[in-house]
Fold each of these.
Amino acid sequence: MKYVVCVPDGCADEPIRELGGRTPLEAAWMPNVAKLAMRGDIGRAQVIPDHLPAGSDVGNMSIFGYDPARYHTGRAPIEAAALGLKLQRDQVAYRCNLVTVGEDGTMLDFAGGHPSSQDAAEVIAALQAELGTDEVSFHPGVQYRHIVVAPADWADAECTPPHDLSDKPVVWPTGPAAPRLQELMDASRKVVSGFAGKASQVWLWGQGHQPDMPSFQETYGLRAGLVTAVDLVRGLGVLTGMAVAEVEGATGWYDTNYEGKRDAAIQGLRDGADLFVIHVEASDEAGHAGDLDQKIKALEAWDERIIGPLCEALDGMGPWRMLIVPDHATPVRLKTHTHDPVPYLLYCSTERGSGGEYDERGAAFEPIVPGHELMRRLVHQV
Ligand SMILES: [Zn+2]
């Protein structure tokens, strides 16, 4: 038996007036998904527990089959794992953004003018040289997104994500560890201002210790692979021992290489993986941009460029099962993630389900199941 998990990031939405009251999932032309839905089972899942932030880290952790209420410690350690950093028990990872704070204390840009990874790496290297110690270290990541590793007791602070402060007065950290964070952020100004970019300092947030996640193989008895362009999702793959495939042209944007991701999954399954996760970010980006047209296009690309040919390839490998589920909703009206339950589709090539339509309306009257239980249902362990 082969298993595939398809994650169209943030694709769930609300009824939209311009679509005659339909959602993007209802409006998109998805004949291949419709065929699976007719023979599969449709349901609703709570991928984001109420008390946790509605982030892709939490939602994808659920989808990977791990209860975020138990395993989620923060987003920084997941991104640290994506960079190949392994935290010790007495360490905490912080997300370290390069940001632009105005003279008047306004958060002008949570992305510090979007530096290239190369330019940013020079700034992070200078920060490490000037401010790094035996206990505190700076690690370069992608563009404006970096990591600071610090002693475990630095975790005891309330920090505001910089993207929640856009064009607002900054909110500095509070709590027992706040003075140390403040000192490091204040000291960063002198170093960062020595570079040509638009960033003015670092911003520390999203902290956590390394989550204690057992490997996927240990937990589910299956060898798993993953393809994604997003660090947070890649980090979850690293932490759970999935084989992470690299695909050229996987951008995390509308123009991503859909065929490349599909073929990486097919190849991975042919090479011995039992299960493969395909994650595509484009639908979430369209949600954040409030771009209805791109959101529908991203869903149609899934159907035509991934699902259709993938089903054909899977048929040639024997019996198979598929789960399609987003990691949260990103409604175009709100341009941000919500905690709403999301629709899922579970398909089995050898067993007929009760059938239906795969969209928010088709799932509206189904009972809500915890997102992390979907993996057990997919791999037939319930
Ligand atoms: Zn997401």
Amino acid sequence: MSHMSSEKYEESKLYKIRHSAAHIMAQAVLEMFPDGKITIGPPVENGFYYDFDLPRNLTPEDLQQIEKRMRQIIAGKHDFVKKVVTAGEAREIFKDQPYKLELIDGLEKGGFDEYGNPLQEKPEISIYQDDTFVDLCRGPHVDNTKDIKPDALKLMSVAGAYWRGDEHNKMLQRVYGTVWENAQQLKEYLWQLEEAKKRDHRKLGKELEIFFFDDEVGPGLPLFAPNGGVMIEEIEKLAKETEEEAGYLRVRTPHLSKEDLFIHSGHLPYYAESMYPPMELEGVKYYVKPMNCPMHHKIFGSKPRSYRDLPIRLAEYGTDYRYEKSGELFGLMRVRSLQMNDAHMYVSEDQFEQEFLGVVNLYLKYFALFGIEKYVMRLSLHSKEGLGKKYVDNERLWLKTEDMVRRAMQNGKVPFVEAEDEAAFYGPKVDVQVWSVIGKEFSLATNQVDFAQPARFDLKFINKQGLEEVPLCIHRAPLSTHERLIGFLIEHYAGNFPVWLSPEQVRVIPITDSQNEYAESIVKELRGQHIRVSADISAQRMNAKIRQAQIMKVPYMLVVGENEMTAGQVSLRVRDGSQKNNIGLAEFVASVKEKIATRSPEL
Ligand SMILES: [Zn+2]
Ligand SMILES: [Zn+2]
């Protein structure tokens, strides 16, 4: 549902539709409150908003009224007309709108746009009019209100928002709306919102007993319950198998180190605000690590390396701690402790393309495994102006590494888009965004090329000419962190995990107490085959037991009664509702083992 093509959202038809709908909404609100004050109303992802200063709070009934009036305005087929004005003319037009007057000051001085956002050049001042409404605006807009489909529009909610986002300013009312190219798109979007609510990983993660937070442990520090523990083990197993095949070497590093290491790496002082405060021990400051790179660099640098040894790929599920502000913590998506599918690859320049492509192919392999069909890789580049400020001051290496990444992606036929001025400090990066089956977007991971850190740590290898050379480093984490990946997978599968990833794969359900012993013997047999299984020998009736297993989304239920016990068989109920009565246990076990071994998406 989100925009993802190479077309910029700001230049898309949808952007114009949403921007225009914001004006129409403002007109409808001003008609309702002639003394109301308007502020700003930009398009946002999936819709638009407008902030108002009104004499009273808006009610749900008001929103219905406003929405109705918007449809009438749309039906009036009004042109959107642009006019360039002087600051003086603008002040005259908006003389009763103090917020607009403040914005006009910013426009006149330069350095700010009509939303009060910083701007490089000094903008021209323009207004747009449709019907009776005039806004301070540089567009773009649709040509005519008729370009908006009245049945593709819906007002969503009202929320408080401070003027200019500053809590010292007045609290305004922000009205959110959504509008799409047609009614069908709106319907899909609303369905997606509903579905996303049901799939919310914070809600499902608790219900399925995967993870939780505890006040005494602290915010942003998730505790994984046994069900989450199983998922973590399975994901690590997947990573280790895959990385072993790709020639990675596994290392282990401590959770904390002396301050010196992070000064050396450059994280201190620049990254200090994202780190936990130090602890002092024997007069020395120690920090818990926010990332694993410096320790891996130490391992690479611990002995002489020759070009024959390269590439060297050091992998670790490293546990890192980052200080995220309390207000920014969000379920498993933004946490303060994270376990990362980390690795650092030390390569020579001529190995770079192949290695980088190898990483990209890992991603594609994982996407296929998890049924992720929609994804985009975004290559973030430096900017010339940022050199020596936000970027390492070495233009030659920037251009060269950016080109190497670009070529690797092109040669690998990997779809990607480019983003100016969004690179990491020490090199270009590729951000990976994925969409869950219901179309919700997640940022999963980042690959970074690093041409600065290896030099800082004095890393080198002896090249073919017998000379010392600094390797390039690729930072990569295709399976992201356990936290983020599990959060994503919960929502992606709505908790209906494939068999290999399901915390509990089989539940045996005896119909009466007389089959409890038989049920326990099946559990023993299956455990011996490394299948995760339990028996429900509670006093509940069979139907309640089945319901319980369904709530926990267990893929297979084996119902055993008198007949099954006598025949040494089971009756299978699958999570998808299908059933198969009186099958031999051995047959069932063989089929489950096959699904697990191949990590099959099928039940
Ligand atoms: Zn506008
Ligand atoms: Zn790293």
Amino acid sequence: MKVAIIGGGPAGLYAAILLKKQRAQAEITVYERNRADDTFGFGVVFSDATLDNFEKYDPPSYRRITQEFAYWDDIAVHFRGTVHRVGGNGFCGCSRRTLLVILQERARELGVMLKFETDIDDESRFADADLIVLADGINSRFRDKHIEHFQPQVDLRSNKFAWMGSTRPLDAFTFIFQETEWGPFIAHAYQYEAGRSTWIFETDAETFARAGLEGLSEQQSADRMAEIFGWFLDGHPLLINRSMWRNFPMIRSQRWVKGNMVLLGDAKATAHFSIGSGTKLAMEDAIALADAMAQAPTVGAALQTYEHGRREEVEKTQHAADVSLVWFEHVDRFWDFDPVQFAFGVMTRAKAITYDNLTLRAPEFVREVDKAFAKQVRAKGFDIDIDKPQAPMFQPLKLREMEVANRAVVSPMCMYSAREGVPGDFHLVHYGSRAIGGAGLIFTEMTCVGRDARITPGCTGLWNDEQQAAWTRIVDFVHANSAAKICLQLGHAGRKGATKLMWEGMDRPLEQGGWDTISASPLPYFPDSQVPHEMDRAAMDRVKQEFVAAAVRGEACGFDMLELHCAHGYLLASFISPLTNERTDEYGGTLANRLRYPLEVFEAMRAAWPAHKPMSVRISATDWVAGGVTGDDAVAIARAFGEAGVDLVDVSTGQTVRDAQPIYGRMFQTPFSEQVRNEARLATMCVGNITTADQVNTILAAGRADLVALARPHLVDPSFTMRAAAWYGASEIACPPQYLPGKEQIFRNSVRDRQDFEDLKIKGKPKTRAELKAEATKPLAAE
Ligand SMILES: Cc1cc2nc3c(=O)[nH]c(=O)nc-3n(C[C@H](O)[C@H](O)[C@H](O)COP(=O)(O)OP(=O)(O)OC[C@H]3O[C@@H](n4cnc5c(N)ncnc54)[C@H](O)[C@@H]3O)c2cc1C
Ligand SMILES: Cc1cc2nc3c(=O)[nH]c(=O)nc-3n(C[C@H](O)[C@H](O)[C@H](O)COP(=O)(O)O)c2cc1C
């Protein structure tokens, strides 16, 4: 077998090593345009877990790498004169040059041919090769040459960064957030060998321009950075090596394989430097390729296996990197945070590290986070313990005069089980059991303001006395038997009305017994859905009155709070999104115009709703479609409702149009809540794929939302909050006397369960740096 590898970076060299180990007879050649020791950059960083992988696949190179590594456990966050250190992170760094020299030596040892100073510009010279590996890096010539086939998407990010070095010793992965007269600068720094550290400087485009960095030479910009970070560099110089300022390209390729050619490493996909995974991804690509080659019968089949098997893992890492880079791009959102909360946000930005996880490895730090959170709650007038504070989830919140005992919320969920809009026994048990289950706040399902405002024939309503009496029974039960507050969500289905029950065909038009629908514009939801009537002024007035009348009835029922549903493509949302609003009057066109009618409705309801009770609005913060509502629009929408008197923005997303492309994942809508909360400076509730109390605490402690709603988890577990209270020892949680023995038992058992869990986690922890070091000095067994 003949293998040609273009590019002698970590991906190309490691692929050569692993393939040669597999097929000693194969003729494997690496072509590298640079000289052997002619490499840019300073250090690379790997986690302990990545090193475990290297150990498994090639012990000799693993041992040499680990002998050369600098190890550290701590992450240190410097912000506004404070330092917060968190241990137990298990990272190590090595010089990129040393890594490449080790891989080159190992490749040579195995019989791989290395051809340096050989710039390849045409793959046709490898016509006789069975496999051509394109590991030619971030600016891959071959990816671009076959651009139509590989279909790379390049997202050039807005921040500027430069990669430098220093002799400054560091004993932790160090983030420095530095205020300057021009704006914020960030340093990501770590030591990779004795007397050498990597320094990546990052700033936004405006700060970059204000600081006059445009057009400076590498040395001049190093001097400028040395001035800014001089207090920390402590007399050590900054070193340069192709350290020009750049914008990071996030690259994703639609295809990785063309015939017998395959993209590896940065050539196929990149991951932002802030999660330090570029070299890891490159080398793990090589592992995946070698695995596929070992198992599949032909090269073609192996390349398919590689692409299909590897893609998900790469996309997961890229997603984490995206979330992380967005955090750094928007660091100004958190600039006025308490430093410990800021540091918690840095630690948890990419979702992998959570509140519980940090509690295990840095309990003191989490205690500080809890205290800072409790202090903020106390400053709002609550008489709570700040020396031994509860976890954030169990801290109270006040909206106008309404106090909720904890931050867990049952998200609004249609049960499609009402008759003529009247909630029945199912609803009483449904809401009642979730209230008893401990959530601080319960939302009703979207309750419709008129018969024709319903989504389906099973939706609840609040337009007549019978419905009012039925809702009063539920509200009374909740108030009599729990500490939960209950919020009425009012809505109008608009063009998504007259559709089937969820389990008979979500959003599908009714075949019989439907009614006429209305919307901002006459656009059907599905091509075969009913074409809605475009609302005229008379319809707008009528519907506004229906909302007000339902709000008045809601007050009579005793609801504690009122929410206006302006999300998910229903009537009011259809005005807000440009995808569903094609009006040419003053209710269409600009965002201000599109918001006009929803705001009119909100203001009319606010005037009718008691001043001491809060109101929220649910919005779709993005349509997940180009040309639709974006996160920036969501901030403007929230601000407009804020000026109209909204107390809480309930930040959901999407469901506006059929061809949306949401990016799902854990807590996938939380970034929008974070943006609205910290840019519009309004209280927010986040929702969407939040399934654990650990996530709830992580979100709250990082200042990404004020309340956290869970929908589907509550469908199967009405006592989600009670269980969480037991786990975190929040014994104050209310419980009806009938259920007290159950509460006592779960609280008692939780102490032991938690201990068992912590023991297990500690046992399952990856090898420590001390263990790795000891191994690195062990004699090498025959390979
Ligand atoms: C600022 C910054 C900081 C980073 N920090 C880290 C970090 O801390 N940890 C980490 O793991 N990663 C980090 N990375 C990422 C890391 O450098 C890359 O992800 C990694 O090197 C990718 O390996 P690769 O083999 O795919 O590509 P490269 O390392 O770029 O190797 C590609 C090779 O191909 C050669 N080549 C290109 N074209 C040709 C051609 N036509 N003919 C012959 N040879 C060719 C190039 O000379 C190069 O040697 C960082 C990146 C940046 C930009
Ligand atoms: C069965 C069901 C019904 C729903 N009905 C409503 C509703 O009436 N009003 C609303 O705003 N959202 C509704 N939603 C959306 C949820 O409130 C929530 O935003 C969404 O399910 C994401 O949260 P989750 O991942 O915790 O389930 C519903 C969701 C489900 C699963």
